[in-house]
Amino acid sequence: MKPSELKLIVQEKYGKIALSDEALYGSCCSKSACCSSEGISNFNESYDHLNGYLPDADLSLGCGIPVEYASIRPGDRVLDLGSGAGNDCFVARALTGETGHVTGLDFTEQMLHKAEENRKKLGYTNVEFVRGDIEEMPLPDNNYDVVLSNCVLNLVPDKQKAFHEVFRVLKSGGHFSVSDVVVKGILSDRARSDAELYVGCVSGASALDQYLRFIQDAGFTDINIHKQKKIELPEGIIDPAEDSDGNGVYSITVSAIKP
Fold it and tell me: Which stretch of 19-28, 44-53, 112-121 has the lowest confidence by average pLDDT?
């Protein structure tokens, strides 16, 4: 399947999630995306203890809490990639305050509409939502102090290009904090070729070593994996012989600095 076709599938699926209460089921492999009620259910982590949390903006599509490791300061300019209904943006706004600015980037029209509705409820004037592709962001160079993303970059076909774009839009000395899905060992060809599973976060995932190389090759330094957790997948996705010795699918939260 061509990258453009995969992007279209992602747009269509997440557009439906934005319009469906089923998205509240929990995890980036939500019932609306691809899994049955017996599918993956432990990707998502609760945000409800964080300042700025708005339940209406939380569609339970993440695989970590990157904002907890983002070291956001008052006055920072923050960019959230794949901002969805605005969950990470509003938590970031509580940290950057009235003197900062938060931008959410998403390429799904329905998600942008939902995020804007939530922004209006909160009355924020320093939060905006922009439509765009992570591989070609319609955003200026050297503009942000912090970039966030939660279980989104694994859905981007060209992750190397995506990290180069993150590097471009960050200020010198800026940093990113990203939660994502990676693979250790071998993921079956069947799982990787399943477009429905791709939208559910798994078969679009890179190998961990390759993922870290993308970050390093983009020019980042001080790469730090803050958290990693093995994901228990539904039976049959990974061969039991391969799912051993630490092999499998993991959620990670990683940060790095633009020199």
Answer: 19-28
- 155 and 127 Cβ atoms separated by less than 8 Å: no
Q: pTM of the full predicted structure? A: 0.86
Q: Cβ distance 82 to 149 under 8 Å? A: yes
Beta strands in the chain (DSSP E): 77-81, 101-106, 127-131, 144-150, 170-184, 206-207, 221-231, 248-257
Comparing C-alpha atoms, which of 76, 83, 81, 82 is closest to residue 101?
76
Q: Which domains does the chain have, with CATH numbers?
A: 3-257 (3.40.50.150)
Q: Could you tell me the CA-to-CA distances from 10 to 163, 170, 209 in Å, in that order?
A: 19, 26, 25
Dihedral sign computed on CA atoms, order 232, 235, 237, 241:
positive
Give the tens place of pLDDT for each residue, 10-39: 667 766 766 664 444 344 444 333 333 333
